[in-house]
Design brief:
three-stranded parallel sheet; D-Maltodextrin-Binding Protein, domain 2; 14 strands; alpha/beta
């Protein structure tokens, strides 16, 4: 074959190769890098609460309270519920519905205080109830926040001249049956080898009446409950609360474990009142503070920066409404339990952590 033929064959082969060679695969478009959480934008996601949805649908919070404990839960002459535990529920209503008055109160007996909550009949139990291991571990409930640090004590007639509970050997002591107080009483006297005679009653009111009518020598309950009972005796100044505190009783609202977001809402409704006191706010000054605040945490608390309430499904001004309508913690305490009340209790352990006489009240930062 001559040279011209070879060139013809080579040209034909080049054409065939060009027709059959695969085309290079297209280069895929580069994916946009995912945003990484930062301090300024940590990637928080709003949470949802079935209880909050139910509350908004019906238009009010259902709150279980004591039948009548001065300072904590007691209807006034107009039938309006007043007290420290009542104000906890009013704070939650202000946070969730924007109106502290949108609460319906349900009287709950001590013997079955958790049943209505676990059955879904109430949204919050706010009934001078102590947080304990067994209650949280076994009942399907949780205590989101402690609102009042208390302890069990003894109320006696001043005329007895007693200085200590250790002097109650052989005494008749009134106590409500079916409560932690009865068990605490038995434990305290047994450990010390002191004999006493328990006089049990079905309610705190009955125990108080037995004590007032000299059916027993002493009345044992939480110190705050004793102060409440003393305030309505015929002659309150004739009775004293002994200095002995025989147990720890951290009191606070109770909610179902099945809705942790609702627990957060209740917790932060209370924290808002503590942060307000810490930052020098009150129901009288908070509106002006909303116009003039420059402190970053105050601005976040009042919903001016950050809109943190949205993380719990709340409006940006949720804490502002709590403070404006219910008050800062010091206002609530003074009104219901402190110097402006019949109980006249000292802050004691319930003072802020940074008070001149520090207490245990401490709220995490609003950020």
């Amino acid at each position: 074959m001559n040279r011209a033929g070879l060139w013809a064959i080579a040209a034909m082969a080049a054409v065939l190769v060009g027709c059959t060679a695969p085309k290079p695969a297209p280069t895929p478009a580069a994916e946009a890098p995912k945003a990484k959480p930062t301090a300024a934008s940590p990637g928080y996601k709003p949470a949802k609460s079935a209880t909050l949805n139910a509350v908004r649908k019906r238009g009010y919070v259902t709150c279980g309270v004591h039948p009548g404990l001065p300072g904590f839960a007691l209807p006034d002459v107009r039938g309006q519920w007043r007290g420290f535990d009542v104000d906890t529920c009013r704070a939650v209503a202000a946070a969730t519905l924007g109106d502290a008055n949108k609460v319906r109160f349900v009287v709950i007996d001590a013997q079955d205080r958790f049943g209505p909550l676990t059955r879904g009949e109430i949204d919050i139990l706010s009934r001078n109830t102590s947080a304990t291991f067994a209650r949280e571990a076994a009942l399907g409930v949780t205590f989101p926040v402690i609102t009042y640090y208390d302890g069990q004590g003894f109320l006696v007639a001043k005329a007895l001249g007693l200085n200590s509970a250790a002097e109650l050997s052989g005494a008749r002591i009134c106590v409500q049956s079916g409560t932690a107080a009865a068990a605490n009483l038995a434990d305290w006297f047994r450990v010390r080898g002191i004999r006493y005679k328990p006089v049990t009653a079905d309610s705190e009111e009955q125990a108080r009446q037995l004590y007032e009518n000299e059916g027993c020598d002493a009345f044992s309950a939480d110190v705050s409950a004793l102060a409440a009972a003393r305030s309505i005796l015929r002659n309150p100044t004739a009775h004293v609360i002994l200095p002995d505190v025989i147990s720890k009783e951290p009191l606070g609202p109770v909610v179902r474990q099945s809705d942790p977001v609702w627990a957060d809402i209740v917790r932060w409704s209370v924290y808002a009142t503590l942060l307000a006191e810490e930052q020098g706010l009150s129901s009288r000054t908070v509106e002006q503070a909303r116009e003039t605040a420059t402190d970053p945490e105050t601005r976040r608390l009042l919903g001016l920066d950050g809109d943190l309430g949205a993380l719990l499904g709340l409006k940006s001004d949720w804490a502002f409404q709590v403070i404006r309508q219910v008050g800062a913690y010091h206002e609530i305490f003074r009104r219901d339990l402190g110097e402006d009340s019949a109980l006249r209790l000292e802050r004691g352990l319930n003072a802020l952590w940074n008070a001149p006489r520090p207490g245990l009240m401490y709220a995490p930062p609003m950020r």
